[in-house]
Design a protein that fits this description.
alpha+beta, Outer membrane efflux proteins (OEP), 4-stranded antiparallel β-sheet, two-stranded parallel sheet, 9 helices, 6 strands, 17% strand, disordered N terminus
């Protein structure tokens, strides 16, 4: 087999791979769309966000009146006796007594120290907190989908590299057998070539296993059947134009963790307002319409009934409660102080994470260039070595070394692209800026 035949074989393999990929290619955009629609944790977070939104009502804040309807019906059968002051007495067995009461009552708190307004504002902030948590979950899950997707891309590239090395190893075995047949090589050379080919095939099987398991994991993130078969694209496109200062500015505005701490601080401030409202009087209007009817088999009155409208108000004010009001306000102020510290802490953590992740990102970008150059050199070295091996001017050890150097260079280049992509994803996740 000459070099031209080798290239033809490699071309056929590449065409077969392309044909297989063309059958069903899952793009990263499609993967993110499926995750947004299907992922279980995102669904739960969406429902929790909807719950927070549903709770934002003036009624839940206590601003609206309440109306209650009630019905009470009591009946009894008793043996009764009565003795009057004049000494006369009367008795009745199986005396029936019944009473019926029903009506509607209305109550409306019209002043509570402005607690209800603070409560409404707090419900709105809780809604924002739910939205922020939803955003955090989406960013985390989309980040996982991106990582799992590009892991498959790099593994797919490594499969192609292993396919290439197996083709080369088969050619080497064929050349060794031909040389042995004509007496130019020993049986040992043939056996070494066979052992190396077997090792390459084992490595390919292991890589196929890892690739299949990674596809199952991605299907899990997409909440799909783990048996769904798909291919991914062949390239890892890394955004090499990220700027640390821009990322930090975005993170201050969009990072969900920092956003949640800021909202929590606002909620603590509104909680203090509600606690302070207990220092003021509470005024409540009341009214209602009631009907009452009773019947008695024994007594001066055998039947009574009443109906009518009632109205009024009640006012109350806390004068002394064992210093609990002072204690509650002090605790609420400490909660605000804690929330301020939490915001400062989260800001510091965020800046540290961005700085370290950006340094890793820059390093990985440099590694991409280095490994790309190494792959080109290793490929050129393999081509020269293959020509020399075909004419018998180098040893099998030198040939195998060049072959492994080429495969390792391709794997390192693929890994460098993947690591750089992971750094990009991490930076954009911290900045709250993953596009989906």
């Amino acid at each position: 087999m000459n070099i031209k035949k080798l290239y033809s074989t490699l071309l056929i393999i590449l065409l077969c791979v392309f044909k297989t990929n063309a059958q069903e290619v899952l793009t990263i955009e499609d993967a993110m769309k499926i995750a947004l629609e299907n992922n279980f944790e995102i669904k739960i977070a969406k429902n929790n966000s909807t719950i927070s939104e549903t709770n934002v009502t003036v009624g839940n804040a206590g601003m609206l009146p309440t109306a209650t309807a009630s019905v009470t019906d009591n009946n009894s059968v008793t043996n009764s006796s009565q003795t009057r002051q004049d000494g006369t007495s009367t008795s009745l067995n199986n005396a029936k007594n019944n009473s019926l009461n029903y009506g509607v009552s209305l109550g409306w708190t019209i002043f509570d120290g402005l607690k209800m307004f603070a409560r409404l504002d707090q419900l709105k902030e809780l809604q924002k907190l739910g939205d922020s948590e939803l955003k955090r979950i989406i960013l985390v899950k989309i980040g996982q989908v991106n990582s799992a997707y590009y892991d498959l891309v790099q593994q797919q590239q490594q499969l192609a590299a292993l396919d290439t090395t197996i083709v080369i190893s088969k050619q080497r075995l064929e050349l060794a057998q031909n040389r042995f047949t004509i007496g130019k090589a020993s049986k040992l050379e043939v056996l070494n070539a066979q052992v190396d080919l077997n090792s390459d095939q084992v490595a390919l099987l292991r890589q196929k296993e890892s690739y299949a398991n990674s596809k199952i994991l991605l299907n899990q993130y997409l909440a799909r059947d783990p048996k769904i078969h798909f291919k991914v694209t062949d390239e890892v496109n890394v955004d090499n134009k990220l700027v640390l200062a821009d990322l930090m500015d975005l993170a201050q505005k969009q990072n969900p963790a920092l956003e949640s701490q800021i909202i929590s601080k606002r909620i603590a401030e509104l909680q203090l307002k509600q606690v302070k409202a207990d220092r003021y009087p509470t005024l409540r209007l009341t009214s209602g319409y009631n009907f009452a009817e009773s019947q008695s088999s024994l007594g001066f009155t055998s039947e009574t009934s009443s109906r009518g409208f009632n109205y009024g108000f009640n006012a109350s004010m806390n004068i002394f409660d064992g210093f609990n009001q002072h204690r509650n306000e002090k605790v609420a102020k400490l909660q605000i102080e804690n929330s301020k510290i939490a915001v400062e802490q989260q800001t510091s953590i965020l800046n540290t994470q961005l700085s370290t992740a950006f340094q890793t990102y820059l390093t990985n970008l440099e590694l991409i260039d280095l490994e790309e150059n190494n792959e080109a050199i290793a490929k050129q070295n393999l081509e020269i070595t293959l020509d020399k091996f075909r004419i018998g001017t180098i040893t099998t050890i030198d040939f195998r070394t060049a072959q492994l150097n080429y495969v390792n260079a391709k794997v390192r280049y693929s890994n460098a692209q993947y690591e750089a992509k992971l750094s990009e994803i991490a930076l954009k996740e911290l900045a709250g800026n993953i596009n989906f």
